[in-house]
């Protein structure tokens, strides 16, 4: 069957598309407005192709609005990371020219060549959680800016009494203790009173949003808050950023995405690793908060951190090891929650297994993982199928005739101790000892 890919280079006011087949042959192109009339015209133009796949660049950024509209209308939409399109544009002919038409072509070519792209699905609960946590982060940054301005004004009104950390009540008491008589002082005090009122209003909004996040995280059924150092805010941000954790093939992919997989920076006889600046920096910040909390409190993370310091690592290197350890723990917890949720939906028992599907695949290429610490083992999968015991005990001891074919290679069964076999998730699973 002929596959049709529509590469989309989205913008706020327009969207440039290019239609190609599975051999990257150009079938059509166009530029449409993102308003209601332009969106209808774009759908009418692509109606000549049967069941196309929409490849939208940056569906979590500039292309979020268009991607959500396409998903809501029942179209098959995949997310193309910007770096994949940039690689195609860099290696393509035309001296790397960057126009909307070239960008749409690069997005379409990346969608054809990539094997695993994240398929977008409609999830109102997750989208609401993301909007609430984003709003809270915006108010938090606004609160910091307001405190800085209020701190500056109070330092000018009351010289020599500046305090590093100030609350709304402390600022109100200080502001009530000063009565300037000059015009500049009166103006400064009036502006400080306005900043104080804004600070109090922002604080109330943050508290309201925090309560909403508590309810949303609890309704989601996530058990992330059971991990040491992971509170409601960290759990909400992790859920909003990760989405479906099954799109990551294993914990190493997840660590590469969170930026907790250290990069090797060795030279000569010196073997060392440095901090990775890649990955999702929001997730990396949340893991840093969890690591800092674990070090401050009496947790296994603090003991692990101190062991790394005793082994000769610096504080920064020990922190990176701890963040990678927390990343693995978060991945396992998310995976366990996803499997439990799938079991509840399908109706299987505790032993049910939810395999990976094409609706949640990894968006990045296989990263080169090299860490300065051995991470915790990931979820292990059985390597041998279960066997039923024979009904007749004597039948088990009777030798069976060999059914080897000509040219077959004889494989010896493992004996003695348990053999460890590496799985695709980077973990180790035990092969049971055969009956003697």
CATH architecture of the largest domain: 2-Layer Sandwich
Largest sheet: 6 strands, mixed
Q: Tally the helices.
A: 13
Distance between the termini: 53 Å
Number of domains: 3
Spatial order of the strands forming the largest sheet: 3-2-1-4-5-6
Report the sheet-strand fraction. Answer: 5-15%
Oligomerization category of the chains in this entry: single chain
Strand runs, count = 10
Given as residue ranges, the uncertain stretches (5+ residues, pLDDT < 50) are: 348-434
Order of helices and strands: EEEHEHEHHEHHHHHEEHHHHEE
What sort of overall outline do the alpha carbons produce when their principal axes are compared?
globular
Helical content (DSSP H or I, runs of 4+): 40-55%
CATH superfamily of the largest domain: Ribonuclease H-like superfamily/Ribonuclease H
CATH class of the largest domain: Alpha Beta
Please sum up the structure shown.
The protein is of the alpha+beta class and 436 residues long. The chain has helices at 36-45, 64-72, 82-91, 100-113, 124-157, 168-176, 183-220, 232-242, 251-258, 281-296, 300-310, 315-346, 393-397, and strands spanning 4-10, 14-21, 26-33, 53-57, 76-80, 118-119, 263-264, 273-274, 419-422, 428-431.
Task: Give the helices and strands, then pairings.
Layout: E1 4-10, E2 14-21, E3 26-33, H1 36-45, E4 53-57, H2 64-72, E5 76-80, H3 82-91, H4 100-113, E6 118-119, H5 124-157, H6 168-176, H7 183-220, H8 232-242, H9 251-258, E7 263-264, E8 273-274, H10 281-296, H11 300-310, H12 315-346, H13 393-397, E9 419-422, E10 428-431
Parallel strand pairs: 1-4, 4-5
Antiparallel strand pairs: 1-2, 2-3, 5-6, 7-8, 9-10
Helix pairs in contact: 3-4, 5-7, 5-8, 6-7, 7-8, 8-10, 9-12, 10-11, 10-12, 11-12
């Amino acid at each position: 069957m002929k596959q049709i890919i529509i590469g989309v280079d989205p913008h706020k006011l327009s969207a440039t598309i290019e239609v190609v087949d599975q051999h990257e042959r150009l079938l059509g192109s166009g530029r449409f407005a993102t308003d209601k009339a332009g969106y209808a015209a774009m759908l009418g133009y692509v109606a000549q192709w049967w069941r196309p796949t929409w490849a939208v660049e940056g569906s979590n950024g500039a292309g979020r609005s268009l991607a959500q509209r396409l998903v809501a209308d029942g179209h098959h939409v995949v997310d193309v990371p910007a770096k994949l399109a940039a690689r195609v544009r860099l290696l393509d002919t035309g001296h790397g020219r960057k126009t909307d038409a070239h960008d749409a072509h690069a997005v379409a070519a990346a969608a054809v060549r990539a094997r695993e792209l994240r398929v977008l699905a409609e999830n109102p609960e997750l989208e609401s959680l993301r909007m609430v946590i984003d709003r809270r982060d915006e108010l938090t940054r606004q609160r910091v800016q307001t405190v800085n301005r209020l701190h500056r004004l109070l330092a000018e009104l009351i010289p020599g009494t500046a305090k590093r950390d100030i609350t709304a009540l402390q600022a109100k008491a200080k502001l009530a203790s000063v009565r300037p008589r000059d015009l500049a002082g009166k103006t400064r005090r009036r502006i400080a009173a306005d900043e104080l009122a804004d600070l109090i209003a922002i604080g109330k909004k943050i508290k309201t949003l925090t309560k909403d996040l508590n309810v949303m995280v609890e309704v989601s059924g996530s058990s992330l808050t059971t991990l040491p150092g992971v509170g409601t805010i960290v759990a909400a941000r992790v859920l909003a950023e990760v989405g479906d954790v099954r799109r990551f093939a294993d914990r190493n992919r997840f660590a590469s995405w969170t930026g907790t997989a250290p990069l090797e920076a060795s030279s000569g006889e010196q073997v060392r690793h440095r901090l990775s600046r890649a990955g999702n920096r929001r997730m990396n910040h949340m893991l840093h908060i969890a690591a800092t909390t674990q070090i401050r409190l009496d947790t296994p993370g603090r003991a692990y951190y101190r062991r790394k310091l005793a082994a000769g690592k610096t504080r920064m290197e020990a922190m990176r090891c701890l963040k990678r350890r927390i990343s693995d723990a978060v991945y396992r917890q998310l995976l366990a929650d996803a499997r439990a949720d799938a079991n509840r939906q399908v109706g299987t028992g505790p032993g049910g297994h939810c395999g990976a599907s094409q609706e949640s695949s990894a968006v990045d290429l296989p990263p080169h993982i090299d860490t300065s610490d051995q991470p915790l083992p990931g979820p292990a999968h059985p390597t041998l199928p279960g066997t039923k015991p024979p009904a007749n005990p004597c039948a088990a001891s009777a030798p069976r005739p060999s059914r080897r074919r000509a040219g077959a290679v004889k494989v010896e069964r493992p004996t003695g101790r348990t053999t460890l076999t590496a799985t695709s998730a980077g973990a180790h699973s035990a092969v049971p000892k055969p009956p003697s």
